[in-house]
């Protein structure tokens, strides 16, 4: 019946590149659109016109299609900014990816060097140092929230110049907090050590 999704067994009758994304192709089963795959998947799986698609291959290719879409989405997220492994897993959970697909995506990203929590933690610390300075205590809490391991976080914190961060934050907030005592209270709420704050502000 017209309009129904193709079901096995069938014959792969066409493979067409997508107009909007030439890196993905549409597959047609018995002249009906079936699913899409990345170009590398078509080559990797040895797909060709006229290939018989039985139930086992049918299910496998459906899973490959889901994986290709999920992997492409994960790459898009990483292109916007570095992510921790936990952030990718949490995103997958929100989008209700099957667990097996999530595990494959995370594994592939790690193998390709796109997902590395130690590198992510170091990059996160550098970005905070450059634009939005934090105390080590607050930075450590952020990294924990993103699921970074204690070892990876510790390595990033070892390279973090908290005194420089404190001085930068003072320059950023001094206009807002003209009273040194109020500025000191703000800095304390950000997790900086009180002795460091007093010394930086020349408080008695």
UniProtKB/TrEMBL annotation:
Ranges for domain RecX third three-helical: 162-201
Species this chain originates from: Candidatus Chaera renei
GO cellular component, one term: cytoplasm
Stored Pfam families: RecX_HTH1 (PF21982), RecX_HTH2 (PF02631), RecX_HTH3 (PF21981)
PANTHER family: REGULATORY PROTEIN RECX FAMILY PROTEIN (PTHR33602)
Reported function: Modulates RecA activity.
GO BP terms: regulation of DNA repair
Protein name: Regulatory protein RecX
HAMAP family cross-referenced by the UniProt entry: RecX (MF_01114)
Compartment(s) of residence: Cytoplasm
UniProt keyword annotation of Cytoplasm present: yes
Chief place where the protein resides: cytoplasm
Gene: recX
Superkingdom classification of source: Bacteria
Keyword Cytoplasm: yes
Family: Belongs to the RecX family.
Annotated ranges, domain RecX first three-helical: 70-109
Swiss-Prot/TrEMBL keywords: Cytoplasm
Residues in RecX second three-helical domain copies: 116-157
């Amino acid at each position: 019946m017209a309009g129904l999704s193709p079901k096995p067994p069938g014959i792969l009758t066409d493979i067409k590149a997508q107009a909007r994304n030439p890196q993905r192709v549409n597959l047609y089963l018995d002249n009906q659109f079936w699913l899409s795959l990345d170009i590398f998947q078509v080559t990797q799986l040895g797909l060709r016109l006229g290939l018989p698609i039985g139930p086992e291959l049918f299910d496998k290719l459906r899973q490959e299609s889901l994986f290709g879409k999920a992997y492409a989405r994960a790459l898009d997220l990483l292109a916007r900014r570095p992510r921790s492994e936990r952030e990718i897993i949490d995103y997958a959970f929100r989008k209700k990816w099957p667990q097996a697909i999530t595990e494959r995506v995370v594994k592939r990203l790690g193998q390709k060097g796109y997902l590395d929590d130690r590198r992510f933690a170091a990059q996160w610390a550098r970005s905070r140092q450059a634009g939005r300075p934090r105390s080590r205590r607050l930075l450590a809490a952020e990294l924990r929230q993103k699921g970074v391991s204690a070892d990876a976080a510790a390595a990033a914190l070892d390279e973090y110049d908290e005194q420089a961060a404190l001085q930068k934050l003072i320059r950023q907030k001094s206009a807002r907090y003209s009273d040194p005592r109020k500025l000191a209270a703000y800095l304390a709420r950000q997790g900086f050590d009180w002795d460091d704050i007093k010394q930086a502000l020349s408080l008695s």
